[in-house]
Each structure stands twice: as structure tokens, then as C-alpha cells.
Design brief:
The chain has a 7-stranded mixed β-sheet, with helices on both faces. A two-stranded antiparallel sheet has the order 2-3. It has a single domain, classed as Spore Coat Polysaccharide Biosynthesis Protein SpsA, Chain A. It contains 7 helices and 9 strands. The chain is of the alpha/beta class and about 190 residues long.
Length: about 190
Amino acid sequence: MVTAGLLLAAGAGRRLGQPKALLPYRGRLLVDHAAEILTAAGCQPVLVVLGAQADQIRARTRLPDVVVNDDWATGMGSSLRAGLAALASSPAAAAVVVTLVDQPHLTPEAVRRVACDATAESLTMATYRDGRRGHPVLLGREHWAGVAGAATGDRGARDYLRAHAAAVRLVDCADVADDTDVDLPDEAAALPR
């Protein structure tokens, strides 16, 4: 069963003052690190959705497959829709693991746990301390159209997952990853360069 990886990295990082994809992280860009997590977890293909400053990001990285979301300014929902549409044209993937560029402490192990036993019918979410739900999120192919239809503004799969809560498998990843995100300049300054 093939599980694709989908990295959402299209935002402008308004609160940060620059796209998060361009943040330096351990000798490379944060977007390269985030894509590598999906690759190391065995996802294939790995698709990265870019938007704000896409040309500059592409010029500075060696990303796997890239889709440019021209509607990135409307919010994360449009990036999720663009990524799912691009993956839908390839029949190989039965499911996709979705991650966000601004979570540098995710790990391949967390992605593997969420993707374990993936099927076209799967809906899976990582959980962290105190039962907090977050990324990675696994979406089986049978849900892609419904997720895309519900993804609007800055709401990706959240509303769809809530509406199908009984079908969502929760996987504890707190011992192997941290879902802390980078939104503000002081958080970005604390990242290892």
C-alpha cells in the first residue's frame, strides 16, 4: 500500500515576517527538513505545496515534487485542495500523510506511526500531551474529495475530521515528536541554524 506525503508550505508567514519555508534550520531551509521527514518515513511520492515566494524557495532548495498554489493567500485550505488534486491524478497512493512546514520537531517515526496500516478508508491523527490532536494527519483516498470540499480559508481537514470523528484513529506520538510550531520571530530565532 503506497502512502504519499503532502507538505503544506505555501504561507507568507505574516506574523513571522517571511515565509516559514525560508527559515534556516540546521544548515538548510526548514522546508527541506520538513520534506526530508516525509521521505525518511517512506512516503512516496512526497509533494510540497508552495505559494508565497515560491520561485525564491525553489531556487534555494532541492525539493521533491512541487505544486504551486496561486491562491495561497486565501489560506491553508487552498493549499490542501491543490495538493490533493495533484495527488489524485496519480492512482498509486491509497492514502496521504499531511504535515506542515512550521513544525520542525516532527519525526519520521511519528509519520510512520500515523501511516501504519493505512488504507484508502483511513482517517488518522497524531496526538500529543493532554490528548491534543495535530499533525501528521493521514487521509485515505476515499476521503480526499470530502476533505477538499470542506477545506476553506485557514481550515484544512479540521472540519471534515470533526464531522467524521467516529472514524478517526488517534495515534499517540508524544514520545517520539513534538508538535510545537514556529509562528513568531522569537520562536524562529530559537531554532538551531
